[in-house]
């Protein structure tokens, strides 16, 4: 294959552990779980299902994914890495009995499934007898081990060079500019896919890769909010908007989730404290009040780490939340809380609460927690979810009386205030062209001591106590609270916020707010306050276009900088800025592969695309009640939607022809016994069989 036409196969293996029957009962119990691994060179990771308590016929229904990356060409010299021969890989599924004994879990039996059983279809669904452990262990009759049902799906994405995808990719990336957005290519994909999640995953990855995710989500969210009649039902359904935001938070917010929740989740899982507050489920040895106190302590800790984590929220999430807040507040102006609930429905309900409930699914823990810890996390998750919802009648949100009674402890205004402050901070946009439409939000205020900035050349540079106030627009200080501002610093003029060395003025807890002409030196009341001010000031100014990369860690006194001894007060900094925040995580996304996946979806649902075209024609000429077969499509402008559909179908058909031509040409030019395809190459022989069924060409 020439370099311009080389085809790459990015493969994914999906294994679904469905169910087991007739598992042995060991020492009067059977608490099984399955451990799944893909056997092959340099592969050792094992994944586990949940433990099914007291059940020797468990229904697991859990799905696991494994990535298999390999080039289709077998010319080893062209590649730096050794490809994985799929035919040599195998799946291993072992069944274990979760034991509380000090000797560990007990092996019940296992199966080894070579991937070559998948054949041309790439799908395999079968029952297996569990086998004894290999190489050792006491002999056991196979029929005594029970059986296991698996569903395995293997998929490959065949990706062309980038230029092949230009027409379809351009249509997708222009989606945010199409009016109405329901006529855009990305929105059409969501309409024709059976599940919105199918469309959301490649769309989000593609838009993140090209830096277009915020405008796209903003326009589809705005359209959905305008279609919503009741502010209490915003984003309640599984719409394309909600699925795209979910996927964005998973990708862009994973590091944020790790640094925020992982330490406390690890502590909860390690301590194994009982937090059961349901009197019916309470064990004889447990004390209800002690359990309540344990649970209250954990909820307070997690609530505190979440509401103080706003400065670490990724910029892309903040920009999306800003857009949601502004659209919701504009649409429902009579509801003062809708600006909060539009954001909390995602950050609490769909991000933090699920991560607390199932930490293994968010890479916070390697495996499912034990039943006691799982129950604790369930109770914490429910409480945090309710705290974040800002519902007016909190206790009414719980159907269980014991949860309503427990929640009374949190019915204090300080919790609602903390949630609102957190939501205000994470829904503050860093884009200055949006400041004109953004409502000013007070983020932090309090007394601190500042050194005079020396704006008058011969003025006194003494220290004075002032009332400081930070909004998402400006940083001001006042003689006292409630008075007019003595000085106002626009957020866009903050070039850096850094600590100031104690040696400068022989004073602790000092930091500096660096502006284009000078630095403002401030002393906080204590080290915690200093850290909070630095974090929040850095957060609101992190997107400034002229942010500094270096700064002076000490003050400019007596004609020189104390840190580097340079005499010019305009000398560039001598120390790299800390930034205060981790950079947005760079995602390892292949834009061409995501476009190929979107093409595959359009190709799969081609009949729906054609039906949607028919629906556009029907709406254009007939203004009566919708035909039932067309009622599932959202079509705001039939003419624009028809135009987009025509372009989509044309781009998809062109790619389809290119795929067919490539396969045909490859098949015609391939020679068995060549260096690229030596005799005995089983993968290629399988490919030959497949092609011979679809074409009359022969070798």
TrEMBL record:
Residues 1-128 form the C2 domain. Residues 441-542 form the PH domain. Keywords: GTPase activation, Metal-binding, Repeat, Zinc, Zinc-finger. It comes from the Eukaryota. The keyword Heme does not apply. Residues 195-389 form the Ras-GAP domain. The keyword Repeat applies. This is Ras GTPase-activating protein 3. The gene is RASA3.
